[in-house]
Specification:
Elements (H helix, E strand, L loop, with lengths): L1 H28 L4 H4 L6 E4 L5 E5 L17 H11 L11 H14 L9 H10 L6 H17 L2 H11 L9 H9 L8 H8 L14 H17 L5 H9 L14 H8 L9 E3 L4 H17 L7 E8 L5 E5 L18 E2 L6 H10 L7 E4 L4 E2 L5 E2 L10 E4 H6 L3 H11 L1 H10 L9 H4 L10 E2 H12 L3 E2 L15 E2 L3 H11 L6 H4 L12 E6 L5 E7 L3 E8 L15 H12 L15 E6 L12 E6 L17 E6 L2 E9 L11 E6 L2 E7 L16 E5 L5 E2 L12 E7 L5 E6 L2 E5 L3 E4 L4 E10 L4 E10 L1
Parallel strand pairs: 1-3, 24-30
Antiparallel strand pairs: 1-2, 4-5, 4-16, 6-11, 7-10, 8-9, 12-13, 14-15, 15-16, 17-18, 19-20, 21-22, 23-25, 25-28, 26-27, 26-29, 29-30
Helix pairs in contact: 1-6, 3-9, 3-10, 5-6, 5-7, 9-10, 10-11, 13-22, 14-16, 14-20
């Protein structure tokens, strides 16, 4: 019996010694670390350029918290917290023995734990020690640690830690996050009523939930108000106002605005540098473009177009103003894919950089190239034969036309002369970071946009053209200084000439007509791109204010049904540009004084003679033509056409003092079939320049055109011009729309459009036969 008693006493003594030693160690040897008192615990806040909250990102512990100093917390919240949690907070030294013994008595009397008697300091100790469930040993350590905190910190510091780390339900920690979550306001603006509602939550966050148990929390709020009044911290009037104030508690919807852009920022690994980011985007603009994209893609669904992306960058500053990565971020499967940073082939939208390099290598925009089927021999002995869009060719074309109308064969001719490796190196200087293969891998197809790029990098490269050859990094944080200084990647003169070509509607008429979506009512340089099998569709361009990039297609690479840049991304680009410049049109592009202008022959590219069709062209000094054109006589060229299609080259040059023109024979065709050969000097009406071949051609619209009603212009003020071309031998003709006659003997007819799919038919008659031509177009 004595041995058993002795062992029990020894166990008690040894436990006491261990606890005592542990208490000494805790008290004297482990001072509270600053990192544990004020941890990197705050959530990561992202706003737009005007302060609109885009997203509050969860901290690393997946708990929302925003640290606020005591001076930025409502005094009413401080009063309510002290009265609710520890009314003798400013009187004790970490332990309130009165509360501790009262809690002990209540727990013994009830037979269960009803109260812990913890002070605010003890609760801070529990938080810092990261204790979830307390036992006797942990409670003892908590008390020792609370005493220690009172030695190292003053009351205000302890209270600040508590208010910033106490749990307020819904994975929300700290009064600032709670104020935003429940009342959508900062903690400094909390009313007395709201403060009393929040102050009770930390005691039992799951039970005292203002949304789930509103009636209980409302009752407790009134009880707490009565205690605050009893202790003389408020007057009767304040008490009555707070008591009668209706508490409007709404669970804040999880804010996730501009989601692709927010994800893009988070991917940059800058959360350790910033706790709050004021981003560059304008959320009002972002929201409008999200709606425009959603509507446009839905309209193109029948052509198997299911996705699209938009990037808008401020031309001068490089600030990203909007980023829409997909049609709908919250769409299942592929909504979270960000097309702005995905790898896609740019097609012809890469060509302007080839022509910039050509300009810098002495090839002017008047340079003539042969746009016919051409074969290029590759190092492995195989042959590369590029094809134009629609398999249409135009024989001799100037570089200006070739770029504006996006002809493929001339682009490959230029690359062959400049060198694949030189163009590849030039693209890397423009900071295309996705050219992972060596130049020989891409070969001649590099001129046609076969290398994969990111939309955002392509847009930023176009911005270098807009900024006169200076490349700077785009920005996504407002007022942040870029680590990279501006780099001159090509000359100001080359930049302006390419800008002039891309903003010159006449340079793209051969491919897109004179009334395409790219023909904006203000100065805008723009280029489209379509990849093989219609997998990618682009439209990139800029004004002096904004640089815009649009991509449409399918993330899985599925081909679209015949949608090109002019019918897919083009109308969307137009809508965006009009929206961006709603407050006023941009100024024209500034031309460098060093450039020179010459009147050149539109056909030969030489200095225009008196019989030449003269046009104005711009040259970098030293690249202008030296010779005068002597090829043109009279009208200069005989257009040979049948049913609107050029025959052969479509143009027969009439030369002076030359024995023959090519073979000296002009092929005369009808409906595409040779009808014999006529000697040039036997052709009647050579002076007028026309070969009398019966001709009926719908010039506009072209087959497959898609028109989109402009929502910013009254519908009654919008029209589509139907234009036809007829031969002089045709006696009468008429236009029909969906079988209904519109007009007779009019070569131009203005029609007020309505949404739908239409058949436009031209019917003509002469003495011997009738002619019919049909095209189809769509209006959205």
């Amino acid at each position: 019996m004595k041995n058993a008693l002795r062992k029990k006493v020894l166990r008690i003594l040894s436990s006491g010694i261990v606890v005592f030693v542990l208490a000494i160690i805790i008290f004297f040897m482990i001072p509270p670390q600053k990192g544990s008192l004020y941890p990197e615990f705050s959530s990561f806040i992202i706003t737009d350029r005007n302060g609109t909250l885009l997203r509050e990102v969860l901290s690393k512990d997946y708990k929302t918290s925003v640290w606020k100093p005591l001076r930025e917390i409502s005094p009413d919240m401080i009063k309510a917290t002290i009265i609710r949690e520890d009314k003798r907070f400013f009187l004790h030294k970490g332990i309130d023995f009165i509360a501790l013994f009262r809690a002990l008595y209540e727990n013994i009397s009830s037979g269960k734990v009803r109260s812990g008697g913890s002070t605010i300091t003890m609760q801070v100790a529990k938080i810092l020690l990261n204790y979830q469930n307390l036992n006797i040993l942990k409670k003892f350590i908590q008390i020792i640690y609370a005493l220690k905190l009172e030695l190292y910190l003053n009351k205000e510091q302890i209270l600040e830690i508590y208010l910033n780390r106490a749990p307020y339900g819904n994975q929300t920690y700290g009064v600032e996050a709670a104020a935003r979550f429940y009342f959508n306001k900062p903690a400094k603006d909390l009313s007395l009523s709201e403060s009393c509602l929040l102050a009770q939550i930390p005691k039992a966050p799951s039970l005292l939930h203002p949304i789930k148990n509103f009636l209980l929390t409302e009752k407790n709020k009134i009880d707490l108000l009565e205690k605050i009044l009893k202790y003389g911290l408020i007057d009767t009037f304040s008490y009555l106002c707070a008591k009668n104030e209706q508490s409007i508690v709404n669970r804040k919807k999880i804010l996730f605005r501009a989601p692709h852009f927010v994800d893009f920022i988070l991917s940059q690994n800058i959360t350790k540098t910033y706790s709050t980011i004021t981003s560059t985007i304008d959320y009002n603009l972002q929201e409008k473009l999200e709606k425009i994209l959603f509507t446009s893609i839905n309209a193109l669904k029948k052509y198997n177009v299911n996705q699209g992306s938009i990037v808008v960058i401020d031309t001068k500053t490089g600030e990203i103003m909007a980023m829409v990565g997909s049609k709908d971020y919250f769409e299942e499967n592929e909504g979270q894919v960000n097309g702005c940073v995905s790898l896609r082939q740019p097609g012809s939208s890469l060509k302007p950089f080839l022509y910039i390099l050509a300009l810098q290598n002495g090839f002017p925009m008047s340079y003539l190239m042969n746009d016919t089927v051409t074969e290029f021999k590759l190092p492995d002995g195989t042959v590369f034969a590029p094809r134009n869009y629609g398999n249409k060719y135009h024989r001799l074309v100037r570089a200006r036309e070739a770029l504006g109308s996006s002809f493929n064969v001339p682009a490959v001719i230029l690359l062959d002369k400049i060198g694949v490796e030189n163009f590849y190196t030039f693209l890397t200087r423009l900071h295309f970071t996705t050219l992972f293969k060596n130049p020989n891998f891409y070969g001649y197809s590099l001129s046609l946009g076969a290398a994969e790029v990111k939309l955002i990098e392509l847009v930023n490269a176009y911005r270098a053209i807009a900024n006169k050859g200076m490349w700077t990094q785009y920005k996504f944080i407002k007022n942040e200084k870029s680590e990279r200084i501006g780099e001159r990647v090509f000359s100001e003169e080359a930049a302006y000439i390419i800008t002039n070509v891309l903003s010159d509607n006449s340079s793209r008429i051969k491919a897109f007509g004179d009334d395409s979506p790219l023909n904006l009512p203000f100065p805008c340089a723009v280029k489209t791109g379509t990849t093989k099998n219609f997998k990618d569709n682009w439209c990139i361009g800029f004004t002096g204010r904004y640089t815009v990039g649009v991509w449409v297609g399918n993330f899985d690479g599925a081909p679209m049904n015949g949608v090109s840049g002019i019918s897919g991304a083009g109308p969307l680009f137009r809508d965006i540009m009009i929206e961006l410049h709603r407050d006023g049109y941009p100024e024209d592009f500034e031309e460098p004084k060093t450039l020179v202008h010459f009147k050149i022959c539109a056909q030969s590219g030489l200095i225009a003679g008196k019989h030449c069709p003269a046009i104005d062209e711009i040259f970098i000094p030293g690249t202008e033509p030296k010779d005068t054109c002597y090829y043109c006589v009279g009208t200069g060229f005989i257009p040979v056409r049948s049913n609107g299609n050029d025959v052969g080259t479509g143009l027969v040059p009439v030369r002076n003092n030359s024995n023959d023109v090519g073979t000296g024979l002009v092929p005369v065709r009808n409906n595409g079939q040779p009808q014999g050969l006529s000697l040039q000097n036997k052709i009647p009406n050579v002076g007028t320049g026309f070969i009398p071949v019966r001709n009926l051609c719908i010039l506009h619209p072209q087959n497959g055109d898609i028109f989109k009603l402009d929502p910013h212009i009254p519908y009654k003020n919008q029209a589509i011009a139907f234009k036809i071309e007829i031969d002089s031998g045709i006696e009468s003709f008429a236009l029909y729309l969906n079988g209904k006659k519109l007009c007779e003997n009019q070569t131009t007819y203005l029609w007020q459009p309505k949404p739908g799919r239409y058949e436009l038919e031209a019917r003509a008659n002469d003495k011997s036969k009738s002619y019919i031509e049909k095209i189809y177009f769509t209006v959205y």
